[in-house]
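Continuing from yesterday's entry. The apo prediction looked reasonable, so today I'm repeating it with adenosine-5'-triphosphate included to see how the binding region is handled. Same sequence as before; SMILES copied from the compound registry.
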Amino acid sequence: MKTLQLVGLTKKFGEKHILNQLDFEFHSPSRYIIHGESGSGKTTLLNLIAGYDNPDSGRVEGGGALNVGYLFQDEMLFSNLTVRENLFIKYASFSPYHQADSHFEALITRTLHDFNILDLIDRKVSMLSGGEKQRVQLASILISEPDIILMDEPTSKLDKKNKEQIIKTIETVFKDKLIIVVSHESNPLLEGGMDLRLENGRLYHEKC
Ligand SMILES: Nc1ncnc2c1ncn2[C@@H]1O[C@H](COP(=O)(O)OP(=O)(O)OP(=O)(O)O)[C@@H](O)[C@H]1O
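Holo prediction written out below.
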């Protein structure tokens, strides 16, 4: 089993400690849902795990050996490009060859099939529904073939029906991955996931 360890992780903005000597061990494959008040540091924590920002002290261990995929709160897609073109842009930024090779074709076909949107591959993003766009955004994370998936409010803009569908898809397609989700929802977002609370700069197990 792979692990991702946070060791004495500390992050300050000005004089304010956002994360304070935070120790935690995430196991893969598992699902964790991080709750916490607005401004408690949830996005800051994901940014540190992804390596987008550096801690003031402490470290993230195991992250370097694991490929991280990050779905941002406002993940951007180019509306006047097709689903294939959007995913290719993402792929080209990871692939050393920057071309749509056979690996890309196999990867995109498998991924879009898993998200049940293969028939939309040549459609412009501007012609997709909100739920379909969200599926393309989720599919785009898999283009970097990550071991760890970080998601900031992945279902916040969806209605109940779409939300349930997306959660089901995440549970099946991402079942072998370590998933860390930030969510404002008070109920467990993903069944079987571990609920955590970020408070006063530390992570606590939350009782449901
Ligand atoms: N680059 C920055 N410079 C200064 N302060 C920052 C910076 N990034 C975040 N902060 C502050 O750090 C605190 C934690 O922000 P963060 O975005 O991690 O919170 P959050 O728990 O994700 O909030 P929300 O639930 O509202 O998205 C906030 O008070 C925020 O204003």
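Comparison notes:
- The radius of gyration is 17 Å.
- The domain at 1-67+180-208 is CATH 3.40.50.300 (Rossmann fold).
Will overlay with the apo model tomorrow.
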